[in-house]
Specification:
Blueprint: H1 14-24, H2 33-46, E1 50-54, H3 57-67, E2 75-78, H4 85-92, E3 96-99, H5 111-116, E4 122-128, H6 137-147, E5 150-154, E6 162-163, E7 166-167, E8 174-178, E9 191-195, H7 198-207, H8 216-222, H9 240-250, H10 253-270, E10 277-278, E11 285-286, E12 292-295, H11 299-308, H12 324-330, H13 338-344, E13 347-350, H14 358-369
Length: 373
């Protein structure tokens, strides 16, 4: 029986397991020293000064919105071609996500569309490094500057990538990472906000800990007991067990990003001359290739053929504004973002993760090639 090939998967080795076991044998399982070490490691790779590790990528997005003071009556511009959490985090704060369309070649947020969506209520822009390709951050920064807006990078697809030589994580006021098992490194579940702004970082640290200004580890080091809750926060903490795994995985990130690009290049070659069209890649950035997304005029037939052959193809994403919740609560629907909607009918994510072999890519390509055009 042919082994099932998932669209994404974690890669765990003996060093990862040993790191977790060492933490389990130590004194701190949560809010301890491994959290800070992991934050420092991510910040070094991302080229920023401050990191705030949290329970997952959604919690990181929520913390970013809180730090920026998003509240009732505020609008935040978001792209429709993303996971729902990118827009949901605005709703969590009582704000309103406003959808701006994407570029047809890359499916990244179109800076012109984002600017056209700005109103007097707009407070921020969240742009998504869709599939792992960094957005046009210079153009987005110019838009944000002209209108006095905060700029947030949902970089959950792009850890390890770069834009014009600058690492992902250093391109916006706050950048957000996810460490879910299908991402570039994993902590099981987990996320992080990174920023160069110390005040924003402090607001997010307090927010992840119920709005309390110190952690148990802080109080242990100082020998004190007193703490204060200064604002309403959440329990968005991450454990030392998870951060030990993340620290161990970090050392392999550059090699994994290289391997993802090698596999993507294999797909480019294997699908050349077929009806399958890869998304446009910009030459001035390092694509982190969380996903390998193609457009196919017979997407549904291709999806069924891949699944029938034990290949875990997927679709990323249903445009957020088409979800029933958004239609019912915000009155969104078809026609709002026509570029994203047209792409949705054709996009398909092919398997891509560092543990795949070149033969796996050839197997996928053979199935896709066999679908009648």
């Amino acid at each position: 029986m042919t082994q099932f090939l998932p669209y994404g998967r974690q890669c765990i080795d003996d060093d990862d397991i040993a790191a977790v076991v060492e933490t389990l044998r130590g004194d701190w399982l949560t809010t301890g020293p491994a959290v800070g070490r992991f934050e420092e490691g991510v910040c070094t790779l991302a080229g920023v000064r401050h990191g705030v590790a949290v329970a997952n990528g959604t919690a990181a997005l929520h913390a970013a919105m809180h730090a920026l003071g998003i509240g009732p009556g505020d609008e935040v511009i978001v792209p429709p071609m993303t996971f729902a959490a990118t827009a949901n985090c605005v709703l969590y704060q009582g704000g309103r996500p406003v959808f701006a369309d994407v570029d047809p070649g890359t499916l990244l947020l179109d800076p012109a569309a984002a600017e056209a969506a700005i109103t007097p209520r707009t407070r921020a822009i969240i742009a998504v490094d869709y599939a792992g390709q960094p957005c046009d951050w210079d153009a987005l920064r110019a838009v944000a500057y002209r209108h006095g807006l905060a700029l947030v990078a949902d970089a959950c697809h792009a850890f390890g990538g770069s834009y014009k030589g600058r690492p992902v994580g250093s391109l916006a006021d706050i950048s957000v990472f996810s460490f879910h098992p299908v991402k570039h490194i994993t902590t099981g579940e987990g996320g992080m906000c990174v920023t160069d702004d110390a005040a924003l970082a402090e607001r997010m640290r307090v927010f992840r800990n119920h709005g309390i200004t110190t952690t148990a580890h802080d109080r242990e080091k100082s020998g004190g007991w007193f703490y204060e809750m200064t604002e309403l926060g959440y329990n968005y903490r991450i454990t030392d067990i998870q951060c030990a795994l993340g620290l161990s995985q970090l050392r392999r990130l550059p090699g994994w990003v290289r391997r993802r690009n090698e596999l993507a290049n294999g797909y480019d070659e294997g699908l050349r001359g077929t009806a399958t069209i890869p998304l446009t890649k910009k030459p001035d950035r390092l694509h982190a290739h969380h996903l390998y997304v193609v457009r196919h005029p017979r997407r549904d037939d291709t999806f069924k053929a891949l699944r029938a052959n034990g290949i875990g193809a997927n679709v990323h994403y249903v445009p957020v504004h088409l979800h029933p919740y958004y239609r019912q609560t915000l009155g969104t629907g078809p026609g709002l973002c026509p570029v994203a909607e047209a792409a949705y009918g054709e996009i398909l994510s092919l398997p891509l993760w560092p543990g795949m072999s070149d033969e796996d890519v050839a197997r996928v390509c053979a199935v896709v090639q066999a679908v009648p055009e």
